[in-house]
Amino acid sequence: MPESIGPRDEGDTEPVRLPDGNLEHLDATVRQLLDQSAEQARQLDNLASAPAGSPFAGFPPGPAMPAPAPAPRPILELEGEEFESEVDTLTDWVETFLMDTYGDEVSTAAPWCLQWQEHEDVLAWLHALWLAYHQHKEPDAGLAGMAVWHRDFLTHTMAAVRAPGGSLSACMTDPDRPAHRILPGPQRSARRTGASTPDTGEAPA
Protein backbone atom coordinates (compact mmCIF):
# COMPACT_ATOMS: atom_id res chain seq x y z
CA MET A 1 0.00 0.00 0.00
CA PRO A 2 1.61 3.32 -1.02
CA GLU A 3 2.38 5.87 1.59
CA SER A 4 0.16 8.90 1.70
CA ILE A 5 1.89 12.10 0.98
CA GLY A 6 1.57 14.41 3.91
CA PRO A 7 1.89 18.16 4.01
CA ARG A 8 5.30 19.71 3.79
CA ASP A 9 4.88 21.79 6.89
CA GLU A 10 2.62 21.03 9.80
CA GLY A 11 -0.74 22.81 9.40
CA ASP A 12 -0.21 23.75 5.70
CA THR A 13 -1.64 22.01 2.63
CA GLU A 14 -0.13 21.71 -0.81
CA PRO A 15 -1.74 24.35 -3.18
CA VAL A 16 -3.69 22.92 -6.08
CA ARG A 17 -2.21 23.93 -9.45
CA LEU A 18 -4.16 23.59 -12.72
CA PRO A 19 -2.66 23.54 -16.17
CA ASP A 20 -2.94 26.82 -18.13
CA GLY A 21 -5.31 25.19 -20.62
CA ASN A 22 -7.77 24.36 -17.85
CA LEU A 23 -7.65 27.95 -16.58
CA GLU A 24 -8.57 29.34 -20.01
CA HIS A 25 -11.47 26.89 -20.28
CA LEU A 26 -12.71 27.85 -16.82
CA ASP A 27 -12.51 31.57 -17.65
CA ALA A 28 -14.49 31.07 -20.87
CA THR A 29 -17.13 29.08 -18.99
CA VAL A 30 -17.54 31.81 -16.39
CA ARG A 31 -17.90 34.49 -19.08
CA GLN A 32 -20.53 32.41 -20.86
CA LEU A 33 -22.51 31.96 -17.64
CA LEU A 34 -22.36 35.71 -16.98
CA ASP A 35 -23.64 36.47 -20.50
CA GLN A 36 -26.49 33.99 -20.11
CA SER A 37 -27.41 35.53 -16.76
CA ALA A 38 -27.49 39.04 -18.28
CA GLU A 39 -29.68 37.83 -21.18
CA GLN A 40 -32.11 36.17 -18.76
CA ALA A 41 -32.30 39.41 -16.78
CA ARG A 42 -33.19 41.32 -19.96
CA GLN A 43 -35.90 38.81 -20.84
CA LEU A 44 -37.35 39.09 -17.34
CA ASP A 45 -37.45 42.88 -17.69
CA ASN A 46 -39.27 42.55 -21.04
CA LEU A 47 -41.70 40.07 -19.52
CA ALA A 48 -42.47 42.43 -16.67
CA SER A 49 -43.08 45.39 -19.03
CA ALA A 50 -45.22 43.52 -21.61
CA PRO A 51 -49.02 43.94 -21.42
CA ALA A 52 -50.87 41.18 -19.62
CA GLY A 53 -51.85 38.39 -21.96
CA SER A 54 -49.60 39.61 -24.77
CA PRO A 55 -48.42 36.72 -27.01
CA PHE A 56 -45.09 38.53 -27.40
CA ALA A 57 -44.40 38.80 -23.67
CA GLY A 58 -40.83 37.92 -22.83
CA PHE A 59 -39.51 38.52 -26.34
CA PRO A 60 -37.05 41.35 -26.94
CA PRO A 61 -38.52 44.28 -28.91
CA GLY A 62 -37.93 44.18 -32.65
CA PRO A 63 -36.37 46.95 -34.72
CA ALA A 64 -38.44 50.09 -35.17
CA MET A 65 -40.28 50.23 -38.49
CA PRO A 66 -39.55 53.31 -40.63
CA ALA A 67 -42.39 55.78 -40.99
CA PRO A 68 -44.18 55.49 -44.36
CA ALA A 69 -43.33 58.18 -46.89
CA PRO A 70 -46.05 60.81 -47.32
CA ALA A 71 -48.35 60.24 -50.27
CA PRO A 72 -47.63 62.54 -53.24
CA ARG A 73 -50.05 65.41 -53.71
CA PRO A 74 -51.01 67.37 -56.85
CA ILE A 75 -48.58 70.22 -57.25
CA LEU A 76 -51.29 72.89 -57.31
CA GLU A 77 -52.28 71.86 -53.78
CA LEU A 78 -48.81 72.64 -52.43
CA GLU A 79 -47.82 75.99 -50.99
CA GLY A 80 -44.76 77.97 -49.99
CA GLU A 81 -41.39 76.25 -49.84
CA GLU A 82 -42.95 72.86 -50.50
CA PHE A 83 -44.39 74.14 -53.78
CA GLU A 84 -41.14 75.85 -54.82
CA SER A 85 -39.10 72.72 -54.07
CA GLU A 86 -41.46 70.55 -56.10
CA VAL A 87 -41.33 72.97 -59.05
CA ASP A 88 -37.52 72.96 -58.97
CA THR A 89 -37.36 69.15 -58.97
CA LEU A 90 -39.96 68.90 -61.73
CA THR A 91 -38.11 71.50 -63.82
CA ASP A 92 -34.89 69.49 -63.68
CA TRP A 93 -36.74 66.40 -64.93
CA VAL A 94 -38.66 68.22 -67.68
CA GLU A 95 -35.67 70.13 -69.06
CA THR A 96 -32.95 67.48 -68.72
CA PHE A 97 -34.96 64.37 -69.56
CA LEU A 98 -38.46 64.90 -70.90
CA MET A 99 -37.85 67.59 -73.51
CA ASP A 100 -34.38 66.33 -74.44
CA THR A 101 -35.85 62.89 -75.14
CA TYR A 102 -39.42 63.52 -76.27
CA GLY A 103 -39.51 67.20 -77.18
CA ASP A 104 -40.31 67.46 -80.88
CA GLU A 105 -39.39 70.52 -82.89
CA VAL A 106 -41.18 73.68 -81.81
CA SER A 107 -43.72 74.79 -84.42
CA THR A 108 -47.23 76.13 -84.71
CA ALA A 109 -48.41 72.50 -84.53
CA ALA A 110 -46.34 71.86 -81.38
CA PRO A 111 -45.75 75.08 -79.43
CA TRP A 112 -43.66 75.31 -76.29
CA CYS A 113 -42.83 77.89 -73.64
CA LEU A 114 -39.54 78.40 -71.84
CA GLN A 115 -41.59 79.67 -68.89
CA TRP A 116 -43.99 76.72 -68.88
CA GLN A 117 -44.01 76.68 -65.06
CA GLU A 118 -46.16 79.84 -65.11
CA HIS A 119 -48.95 78.06 -66.99
CA GLU A 120 -50.85 76.34 -64.19
CA ASP A 121 -52.53 73.72 -66.35
CA VAL A 122 -49.23 72.80 -68.03
CA LEU A 123 -47.54 72.60 -64.64
CA ALA A 124 -50.27 70.27 -63.37
CA TRP A 125 -50.11 68.06 -66.49
CA LEU A 126 -46.33 67.66 -66.38
CA HIS A 127 -46.29 67.03 -62.64
CA ALA A 128 -48.83 64.24 -63.04
CA LEU A 129 -46.72 62.81 -65.88
CA TRP A 130 -43.64 62.94 -63.64
CA LEU A 131 -45.40 61.09 -60.81
CA ALA A 132 -46.61 58.43 -63.23
CA TYR A 133 -43.07 58.05 -64.58
CA HIS A 134 -41.69 57.28 -61.13
CA GLN A 135 -44.48 54.81 -60.45
CA HIS A 136 -44.07 52.91 -63.71
CA LYS A 137 -40.30 52.63 -63.59
CA GLU A 138 -40.40 50.76 -60.26
CA PRO A 139 -39.74 46.98 -60.35
CA ASP A 140 -43.25 46.16 -59.11
CA ALA A 141 -44.67 47.78 -62.28
CA GLY A 142 -43.37 44.77 -64.22
CA LEU A 143 -41.43 44.56 -67.46
CA ALA A 144 -44.16 46.45 -69.32
CA GLY A 145 -44.23 49.33 -66.83
CA MET A 146 -42.48 51.87 -69.03
CA ALA A 147 -44.41 50.77 -72.12
CA VAL A 148 -47.62 51.49 -70.21
CA TRP A 149 -46.25 54.89 -69.21
CA HIS A 150 -45.47 55.75 -72.85
CA ARG A 151 -48.86 54.59 -74.09
CA ASP A 152 -51.19 55.84 -71.36
CA PHE A 153 -49.41 58.91 -70.01
CA LEU A 154 -46.61 60.35 -72.15
CA THR A 155 -48.39 60.46 -75.52
CA HIS A 156 -51.63 61.86 -74.13
CA THR A 157 -49.93 64.46 -71.92
CA MET A 158 -47.64 65.83 -74.62
CA ALA A 159 -50.54 66.03 -77.07
CA ALA A 160 -52.60 68.05 -74.56
CA VAL A 161 -49.78 70.31 -73.38
CA ARG A 162 -48.47 71.13 -76.87
CA ALA A 163 -51.77 71.24 -78.69
CA PRO A 164 -51.97 73.91 -81.47
CA GLY A 165 -54.87 75.65 -79.74
CA GLY A 166 -53.78 74.93 -76.16
CA SER A 167 -52.32 77.01 -73.38
CA LEU A 168 -48.95 77.41 -75.11
CA SER A 169 -50.29 78.39 -78.51
CA ALA A 170 -49.59 82.08 -77.87
CA CYS A 171 -46.03 81.34 -76.72
CA MET A 172 -43.08 80.03 -78.71
CA THR A 173 -44.03 78.59 -82.10
CA ASP A 174 -40.59 79.15 -83.60
CA PRO A 175 -37.39 78.10 -81.77
CA ASP A 176 -35.71 81.32 -82.92
CA ARG A 177 -38.45 83.55 -81.46
CA PRO A 178 -39.08 82.80 -77.77
CA ALA A 179 -42.36 84.20 -76.48
CA HIS A 180 -44.47 83.88 -73.35
CA ARG A 181 -48.10 84.82 -72.92
CA ILE A 182 -50.74 83.49 -70.57
CA LEU A 183 -54.09 83.38 -72.33
CA PRO A 184 -57.05 84.62 -70.28
CA GLY A 185 -59.42 81.94 -69.07
CA PRO A 186 -63.23 81.99 -69.16
CA GLN A 187 -64.82 84.91 -67.33
CA ARG A 188 -66.96 84.13 -64.32
CA SER A 189 -70.68 84.39 -64.97
CA ALA A 190 -72.73 87.17 -63.42
CA ARG A 191 -74.58 84.63 -61.27
CA ARG A 192 -71.29 83.37 -59.75
CA THR A 193 -69.75 86.81 -59.19
CA GLY A 194 -72.94 88.43 -57.87
CA ALA A 195 -72.67 91.25 -60.44
CA SER A 196 -75.71 93.27 -61.41
CA THR A 197 -77.61 92.19 -64.46
CA PRO A 198 -77.64 94.72 -67.31
CA ASP A 199 -81.42 94.66 -67.71
CA THR A 200 -82.66 95.37 -64.20
CA GLY A 201 -79.59 96.70 -62.43
CA GLU A 202 -80.40 94.44 -59.48
CA ALA A 203 -78.28 91.69 -58.12
CA PRO A 204 -79.77 88.27 -58.79
CA ALA A 205 -81.46 86.55 -55.88
TrEMBL record:
Coiled coil: none annotated. It holds the Pfam family DUF4913. Residues 1-23, 49-73, 171-205 are annotated as: Disordered. Residues 58-73 have a biased composition (Pro residues). It comes from the Bacteria. This is DUF4913 domain-containing protein.
